[in-house]
Amino acid sequence: MNVLVIGGGAREHALCRSFSLDPDVTSLHCAPGNAGIAEVAELHPVDIMDGAAVADLAVALGADLVVVGPEAPLVAGVADAVRERGIDCFGPSREAAALEGSKAFAKDVMAGAGVPTARSYVCTTPEEIDAALDAFGAPYVVKDDGLAAGKGVVVTSDEAAARAHALACVGAGAGDGEPTGRVVIEEFLDGPEVSLFAVTDGRTVVPLQPAQDFKRALDGDEGPNTGGMGAYSPLPWADAGLVAEVERSVLQPTVDEMRRRGTPFAGLLYAGLAITSRGVRVIEFNARFGDPETQVVLARLRTPLAALLRAAATGQLAAFPELRWSEGAAVTVVVASHNYPDTPRTGDVITGLDEVAEKDEHAYVLHAGTRREDDGRVVSAGGRVLSVTATGAELGAARERAYRAVDRLGLEGSHHRRDIAAEAAGL
After folding, report:
1. Which CATH number fits domain 2-90: 3.30.470.20, 3.40.50.20, 3.30.390.50, 3.40.1350.10?
2. pLDDT for 353 beyond 80
3. Is the fold of 119-186 the same as that of 329-411?
4. Which pairing describes strands 42-43 and 27-32: parallel, antiparallel, or unpaired?
5. What is the 3-state secondary structure (H, E, C) of the chain?
6. Using one digit for the tens of pLDDT, what is the confidence trace for 213-248?
7. Most buried among 15, 141, 181, 370, using CB within 10 Å?
8. How far apart, in Å, are the Cα atoms of 13 and each of 34, 36, 46, 169, 205?
9. Which CATH architecture has domain 329-411?
10. CA distance 274 to 188
């Protein structure tokens, strides 16, 4: 199988790594990729937001399967452009990707499907914002309606900060991103959070193993929200029936509701969940593999990835064999650049990459924001620079290996959390 992966982060490196180990994959390409992905796939410069350009590349390469990694090209309809050229593509249509592209749309779908989620208000004016904040009280949960690279959510007990973020989202205040005109304000959900991916062809749902990620920048869940600073899988504290319950109450009803609306969702449905005192509640849906959870989930998957994703892309999941998983655990620690997530510094040299590979066969580095200079040096090129991933017989062993590998790396001014999976490992 000839596979083309779209994207250039650690999620795409994890996907490419899995494909490179898959005996069914005879040729592997990535656009645009990064310095690490270049070691396992042929890279191609392309504007991943240009559906026609991506489709042209897929045709030129003779791709059998295209896998679109990031959310922005999915929301822009890149998967549609690829399918229009007769090439199998793993990723939802533009209309279906609105499950991630619009928090308000996702809430409407959940209401139609009877999916348990937080009570919420969709606001468009300062008056509606004030009423919603008053209705729920602190802690305040304020979500940009559109895409925000994992940083559009503010959870705070500071009403002024919550209101300022909400006003920026609707275009009535200062903000970093383009205002969407709508903001979702919802009740705070107590309890631990869980990420659960499901591969679906629009009818059949195949859940993967759950993971937990860490959104805050600093140890102890302090600091600003980020795109994710680490993850682990499995979850030793989770109920044994969690995956089956979420499939029954969340995943399958959502896929059925999307099909009923005439916008079937085929691809990767990501459910961000809170395990509250009142039961499972959906925090958000994403329309693609999450980062950094993908890194740990794929590290444990033993079923060849290409056949699974192609079955979803071609409507054949009902006949697909049961997935196989390793018995062990996986931990990922994200190494971020100086001043991430605010204004990350780039261009710093990364050292120790070869040493990680040489010292421990159970630990490896997935590149996120990197590039290779003409002199061969690898430098930082983004906020989240590396995802250091390790496996072990149990969570404590995987965690120890991951942090040993992190300590072998050098990146001036970088930072990372030291408490990834610590509580789950009993530390």
Report:
1. 3.40.50.20
2. yes
3. no
4. parallel
5. CEEEEEECCHHHHHHHHHHHCCCCCCEEEEEECCCCHHHCCEECCCCCCCHHHHHHHHHHHCCCEEEECCHHHHHCCHHHHHHHCCCEEECCCCCCCHHHHCHHHHHHHHHHHCCCECCEEEECCHHHHHHHHHHHCCCEEEEECCCCCCCCEEEECCHHHHHHHHHHHHCCCCCCCCCCCCEEEECCCCCCEEEEEEEECCCCEEECCCEEECCEEEHHHEEEECCCCEEEECCCCCCCCHHHHHHHHHHHHHHHHHHHCCCCCCEEEEEEEEEECCEEEEEEEECCCCCCHHHHHHHHECCCHHHHHHHHHCCCHHHCCCCCECCCEEEEEEEECCCCCCCCCCCCEEECHHHHHHHCCCEEEEECCEEECCCCCEEECCCEEEEEEEEECCHHHHHHHHHHHHHCCEECCCECCCCCCCCCCCC
6. 999 999 999 998 899 999 999 999 999 999 999 999
7. 15
8. 8, 7, 17, 32, 25
9. Alpha-Beta Complex (3.90)
10. 10
CATH number at 119-186: 3.30.1490.20
Q: Are 247 and 273 in contact (CB under 8 A)?
A: no
Q: So where are the chain's domains?
A: 2-90, 119-186, 190-319, 329-411
Apex 412 CA angle, 406 and 413, nearest 5: 95
Q: Using 50, 70 and 90 to split pLDDT, how confident is the model at 173? A: very low
7 phi-psi bin (left φ>0, alpha ψ -120 to 50, beta other): left
pLDDT tens digit string along 76-126?
999 999 999 999 999 999 999 999 998 889 999 999 999 999 888 899 999
Evaluate whether 398 touches 328 at the Cβ level (below 8 Å).
yes
141 and 186 Cβ atoms separated by less than 8 Å: yes
